[in-house]
Amino acid sequence: MKIIALILSFFLLLRLLVALSNFIWVKLIHRKIQKQATAGVKWSLLIPARNEQENIAKLLSDVCEIEDAPSQIIIYDDNSSDNTAGVAKGFMAMLPQLRVIGQKGAEPPVGWLGKNNGCHQLSKEASGDYLLFVDADVRLGKETGKWVSYAASRNISLLSLFPVQITDTLDSRRIVPIMNWILLSLLPLPLTRHCSWSSFSAANGQFMLFNASAYHNLEPHSLFRSSHAEDIAISRYFKKKGYSIATLTGDHSVRCRMYNNRREAINGFSKNVFHFFGGSAVATVAFVLATTSTPLFLIAYGLWAYILWLLAVASIRILVSAASRQDIRSNTELLFVQHYYFILIVYKAFINRSRKTLIWKGRNIYQ
To answer: Residue 364 pairs with which residues in a beta bridge?
Structure first.
């Protein structure tokens, strides 16, 4: 029992060091980006959208305020049943560089997921030197162009951000922070930039900025047309092909409200949770067991072991929250509740995989 306790304690300490390194790295990079001179790079803003009439209005309102505006804005209306296209077209007077593409009634080709097809169609129409793909539920600040300037000045072929998540409901505070808790306590972000190993890769499809030449050379959304974690697959592929990538947490210039309720959040995370662990269900379960069972094995070491364990667990939450610009107090108070929902998400992922059924945006992503 003591040996297992030592192994689990070492794993916890390692995660604490990763969280600390990410906190320091993100702070340093953000300072550099704040001082980044705009490069005047021509960039295209590309938005796949399906039934997003409310979100698309908010996003395009944001785009009207961007200081270094995109030279091109294209929305792919993925056969929406609401008025997504109509709402988007209503902004054309304010945004003359805006176009809406997509044919009513057209479903993705066989073997394609809707978003991947949408991104691929958008890329064929894009003319910018950099291509920024964002989800319709992302909110962009007036300084968004600084990320394009940063990628161009550092010759980064793929820059992906984990946006600041808007968590203004109890359900969102219970579930949404789980994603960054996993990422920022397991993956040292500096290694996404400075290590050639593809295992040290991550990306978030909510914000993916590509060098256009690299994108068109690889056509990654076509290559991973059937993947429901195409963002992670693309980042690994770029590294394997020798292209430079970087993954960062964002600031308030890029925000997102991911889900509207608890059911959406659980379903949304369950479709990707295995991919946080290299696509391995075994690794996912091992992480669940390691993070859940540690207190059971500390009994041999007495009260001080439990105090140190709790301090380490809380410290990871604090560092991850600070690096992600999340509410530190809320994440610390809800850490056990969040862990419960993490276990529930993994359970849901196994159920979905066994049944090969998960309805997302009205489509089964397993077909």
So the answer is: 359
The 10s digit of each residue's pLDDT in 178-231 is 999 999 999 999 999 999 999 899 999 999 999 999 999 999 999 999 998 899
Dig out the tokens for 87 from the structure.
Answer: 């709402």
State the span(s) of the chain assigned CATH 3.90.550.10.
36-163+204-258
Q: What homologous superfamily is domain 36-163+204-258 in, according to CATH? A: Spore Coat Polysaccharide Biosynthesis Protein SpsA; Chain A (3.90.550.10)
Instruction: Could you list the beta-strand ranges (E) of the chain.
Output: 43-49, 72-77, 98-101, 130-134, 138-140, 158-162, 164-165, 207-211, 245-249, 254-256, 359-360, 363-364
In the chain the first and final C-alpha atoms are separated, in Å, by: 45
Q: Which of 115, 342, 106 lies closest to 208, judged by CA?
A: 115
pTM of the prediction? 0.93
Dist. CA 319–CA 233, nearest whole Å: 27
CB 147 within 8 A of CB 141: no
Quick count: other Cβ atoms within 10 Å of Cβ 300? 10
> How far apart (Å, rounded) are the C-alpha atoms in residues 357 and 207?
26
> Which class for 10: exposed (0-12), middle (13-18), buried (19 or more C-beta within 10 A)?
exposed
| Alpha-carbon gap, residue 346 to 271, rounded angstroms | 9
Give the CA radius of gyration of the chain: 21
Give residues with Cβ within 8 angstroms of 24, minimum separation 6: none
